[in-house]
Amino acid sequence: MKIALHVPCYINELNPEIAKKTLLILRHFNLDVKVPKEQTCCGQPFINSGHPTTLPQKFNEVFKNYDYVVSPSSSCVSTIRSQTLEVSKKMFELCEFLHDVLKVKNIAKNYPKKIALHNSCHSLRHLFEGSPSELNIPYFNKIKEVLGCEIIEASRDECCGFGGVFSLKEGFISYVMGRNKLDDLLNKNPDVITGVDFSCLMHLESIAKKDGDNIEIKHISEILWECLDETL
Amino acid sequence: MKHYELAINFYKQKGPRHDKALWAIRQKRDKAIKEVDEWEELREKASKIKDEVINNLQDYVKEFIKNAKKEGIELFFAKDAKEHNEIVFDLLKEINAKKVVKSKSMLTEECGLNEFLEKRGIEVIDTDLGERIVQLRGEKPSHIVLPAIHTTKEEVAEILGESNTDPTYLTHKMRELLRNEFLSADAGISGANFLVADKGWAVVCTNEGNADLGAVLPKLHIISVGVEKIVPSMRDLGVFLRMLARNATGQKITTYTSIFGRKENGKRVIVLVDNGRFERLNTEFKETLKCIRCSACLTTCPVFRRSGGHAYRYVIPGPIGSLLAPLNNKEEYSDLPFACTLCNSCEMVCPVKIPFSKQLVKMREYVTKDDFAFKFIETSLHSPFAFKLFSKIIRLTPKSILKKALNEWSKYKEFPTIPPKRFIDG
After folding, report:
1. I need a surface site. Which of A64, B123, B295, B420 has the fewest CB within 10 A?
2. Contacts of A49 in chain B (CB under 8 A)
3. Cβ(B131)–Cβ(B109) under 8 Å?
4. Pair B102, B251 in one domain
């Protein structure tokens, strides 16, 4: 099984630790994981801001010969999956890969802190890693299964207001939505807020910092690695 | 003013209340659709029926016209808003009408019928409670099913000159006022939710019975309706009637679901309106023609709930409006497809499965002009070396300049810390 790690460009620039943790998690399961050096950007920022791009084709060239491409970002996975490329069906979000392919569950069963999970839109309503509240389908949540501990969720499974280009065009409403999401989660007294999309978490953290909320926010790969790392 | 500015103003005045009211309706909707075990299959069916109709629209229009004429309904076909308004005006002139009672029709809003008739000396009274409120306030509906959702009970009391702000009291007051209008009107105008092709019937769904009074009391009843509202048969109608009210407001069915054929005490006329719809069939936005105007995409939209409908400035706001408005005027509404986080909630609630996210992304491309800077960066990002160079430049740029460049972010949020080293840095 040839596996490639996709390092989302914004994670490479703004939080490289997430890429490192994702790689460590995959290698923990004795997988042959390569990190293609020639990867850049999947094209999402261009597509979503209305500019034509051939970056998804370039992405395909880099990754098409692997059996699986694993990415710690559901929005990048969603971008590639919505194209009709060879790589489209091979790409998985980290938790999705752990759940669907490796069939690993309950990694954070003994995690000492109370975790609040932010179900991001791309994970929930594009990749269907859980059941969106809008649909009449049985409840499920793959991320919660992978974690396997008691999880706090927001009372509304709505958007946190990041939305990429949206956060730069409508800063105020973006802020309000993020504030509402934080309040919803903080009301339930978690120790840490996590999720599969660092973009949403970065947005929530930027608001928490500005408004002086005392809450730890970290990407799911960091929590999973804390649980898997035998050296700790 | 653009969406983002209007949204700030609205949110600061009424945002939290508006958001709460609409989220409550979203929850009622969720409960109602979860009572129908086969809900997701119904959506699939409804989507297929609408595909069939829009892919054979010309044939269905012909069939409907033939059967409606057989039924004894007079038929007109208007190619655009102007022609529609003229046809309606001529019909009213024929009977020397001075006053018209209108029940909710987004199509007449789209055509600007009220203003057209008022300029020509005909008084138009909107009879839907919410529509009458916004009409008296000199506004446009802010939501297609809940036109006055942006107003408070105090504001309603004020326009009625009442000091009592009890909603039930105010509703009764409005009912009294409207009853007189119904009894003295020369004609009634309504929209239609569906047209049944094989019967030639028009179906109107309301909660207040106002469309029925307007259809029955005056001698002339005009139905203005878009061509895409056709369903093939009564069997198909059943699919939509099970979904419409549940999805819109969480009711099992609207209080009144009236099927209109021949008018016993006068004349019934249907004006079928194209107004760009046939042309849209040949574009990548043809799937927007499947919309049944249930309004669920507005109600669920987290941006709409906080910005209010007027921030969209178009007759139909919210996600579906952000697709329709730029087709009507690309320059004026180029901000709307970006008043969206691509959260996809609209697509999840859509009863006819319009692929909202794909359509909104396409619409962003449609309204966006070629930009040399974007093209240059896009081309450069094919190379990891160029990417690294950009990354270096950003790390060397003082934070104050970055903050200023991303002002919409920094105004409301902390600027993220950029770590010195990347993960892939080769």
Report:
1. B420
2. 364, 368, 374
3. no
4. yes
